[in-house]
Amino acid sequence: MTTDTPQATLITQAAPIAVVTHGGRAKCLQRLVRLDLPVPRTVALSFDAVHAIAAGEMVDLDAILSEFPEDAILCVRPSSEDPDWGGPGAVLNIGMNDARFVSLSDTLGKEAASALYLRFVQAYAVHVARLDPDVFEDVEDGGPDALSEVLHAYEAEAEEPFPQNRGEQLAAVLRSMARAWEGTTARLLREAKGAPADAGLGLIVQEMALGLGQGECGSGVMQLANSQTGEPQVTGRYLSQSQGRDALGGGVEAMFLAQDDRGRSLQDEAPEAFADLSRHAALMRARLREEMQVEFVIENNQVHILDGVRIQRSARAAVKIAVRLAEDGVIPAEEALMRVDAHALNELLHRQVAPDATRDVLGRGIAASPGAARGKLVFTAAEAQASAARGEPCILARRETSPEDVRGMHAAVGVVTEKGGMTSHAAVIGRGLGLPCIVGVSSLRFNMRRKQLIAPDGRVVSAGTQVTLDGSTGEILLGEPEMLEAAQDDAFQTMMAWADEARDIGIRANADTPEDAITARKFDAQGIGLCRTEHMFFEPGRLTVMREMIFADTSEGRAAVLARLLPMQRDDFRELFRIMGGLPVCIRLFDPPLHEFLPTTTTGQRELAEALGLPISDVTRRVEEMGEYNPMLGLRGVRLGVTVPEIYDMQARAIFEASLEASSTEPEIMIPLVSAKREVELVKARIDAVAAAVRAERGQDFSYRLGVMVETPRAALRADEIAQSTEFMSFGTNDLTQMTYGLSRDDAGRFMSDYVQKGVFPEDPFHRLDVDGVGELLQLGVQRGREGRPDVVLSICGEHGGNPESIAFCRMVGFDYVSCSPFRVPVARLAAAQLAI
Ligand code: PEP
Ligand code: MG
Predict the structure, then answer these.
(1) Residue positions in the annotated binding site for substrate?
(2) Is the minimum distance from the CB of 712 to ligand 1 under 6 angstroms?
(3) Full set of structural domains in the chain with CATH
(4) pTM of structure
(5) Is residue 707 in contact with ligand 1, taking CB distance under 6 Å?
(6) Residues near 679 by beta carbon (within 8 Å), at least 6 away in sequence
(7) Crossing angle, helix 646-661 and helix 555-580, to 10 degrees?
(8) In the annotation, is 350 catalytic?
(9) Span of the secretion signal (predicted)?
């Protein structure tokens, strides 16, 4: 065997042990040795050595054994690079044989000696000799004849006596553990957790602290923080006369550690050992700079430390632990920021289904807006409103949502749609409202007429049934699993404040309503980066006025109807300016195709005919005339601004008047869907004229900033000339992704999972920015925009603005800020800080 690392190394303070050569456990044990903690003598085998053993070579066993006393009982434990990659189970009590059984019976007592030997024979038979587990695992532990029964069974099954030589036993254990690691199942399992194909395994040979015998003996684990909350709390389990992880097994009467837990505690039973252990645990926290779970054995009142692993933790505990470590001076604040997964913050911002709750999964879709919600199933927006009025939480199920469902969405606690993808209407509104939302649930059949959801297994769920949506996993669950509440506690606020100090890219929120704006403020967004004004036209009372406007034949007629909308819009904007308290507010002019506002059903058309005093045939004809084959590529955005300019005139006036009345900072006005410089010039000329008129009427001077949305590939390509007429450009990556791929954002949900599964897309490009394609257009747009106007302010306001990987790209290409749904603002703030550190 040729290797640069020694095959087997006694772990001392100075031994050459590294995670990449010997694994995490070996490295951790070395750290514990350096802290002078009472760690049993340990030899570490390198990845190379274990690999060679699996291939049929054997390390120098005599050299290993010479490191231990002749009669030491040993154990072998795995040490992989990352503990999550798993590894074969530990084998304890190597060296037990007939002679040791006799001698230990004298010193520890027969019962303890028998338990030690029995445990080893059982493990050896099943995991090393690979004999039938049924024969060995059902033996009644500790029964007086158990040991001899098992030894006989071994001899019968293996057709040879149980090996008595310690070296032979150790060799067989090492070989079987090395081979188990190389097996196909183990490899596939760890690769699924991100391990590379050639991930190595180290092995630890350690002298046993037995945990059985005279005086207080036993084993257990201790940690100094609660895994769910992160609060300081001594927790763990200890079991007298036990080994390994026995104390954690089900059905055993383990003790608690500290007195303040209910029931018997180690602190009561063995106060000195408890005090030693607590000191060791505190030292490990301080010096390993992490909350650790300490694995220990007590042998005749003496504490031995076997291992320390980072404690498992929920997202809220991760924040609390990181902040406490920094506040205690154990780690710097910047490191605390790096220790929390930005994605996981979502768990703190929303209610969650408790991790250990039982889930009865009815169907699955795209997890479009995180958090969990439960309520009675309803199938129309009107039912949702009625349910809310009765004070009954409800889940709104629709095939897909349209602007007319928005009020129902406000009334519901969660939304589920059969169709749609990450940027479909339900998804965008859901995220904006912080409302759990699942879209593209093609596995369930939505029978809207009968008001039923039909699961693939034939279960039928009708309106009124209690269901739970898990918008973080995309699962629709039957019933009411246990929930965890949102937790924006002090630790969260502290972490966010540190993040703001560290980051170097701005974060604004996409906010359309006063509620959105309040959320944006609550999460300390630096302003509104996108206010989609069209939602304001779906308010009750306004839709009819809007429809009258659409039906007006002349420019004057349109202007007259719009004059009725003006005060309403002015109120909307004044409220937003007021809530934002002087922070920048960027308002996007009307964007959607007009026909979205027209009634599609005969009843709706009849109602409109009545309201307008027109024959229904006129209404139907007009609706038909306005139909487009491809509305998302049709008369919408700036094209409306150019052809029906009165709408933008009214909106600009409402913005200016509101801004004056609210004494806000200069408003930002944004033109959607541009693709040519001339479009901007035409709209700019009219808005300038409106500004001049308002200045004259009000006798007050003011300025405003004009910008465009870059949402068409042409706008990105021609950004240099477009930038000359604008002060800012905000990249709308929802439409830009749609147009770059030629992929409908409202229909992609149907085949997205196939595309991702088959590896066509690494991930849904509406969720994670396609850096290769759409990203190249962004990069070109940024570069050309700055060429056209060096001080142009650049940002992104598509849904990608809240995605940590996309933020990394935006920062790299030089955006000034990102704007995302209000509930994603904290995630964006932390992700941006991590990028800057
Ligand atoms: C976009 O297209 O990225 C965007 C922000 O606008 P909307 O989602 O309203 O089309
Ligand atoms: Mg858009």
Answers:
(1) 532, 588, 711, 732-735
(2) no
(3) 8-207 (3.30.1490.20), 218-313 (3.30.470.20), 351-484 (3.50.30.10), 503-537+567-588+633-836 (3.20.20.60)
(4) 0.83
(5) no
(6) 638, 639, 641, 642, 671
(7) 30
(8) no
(9) none
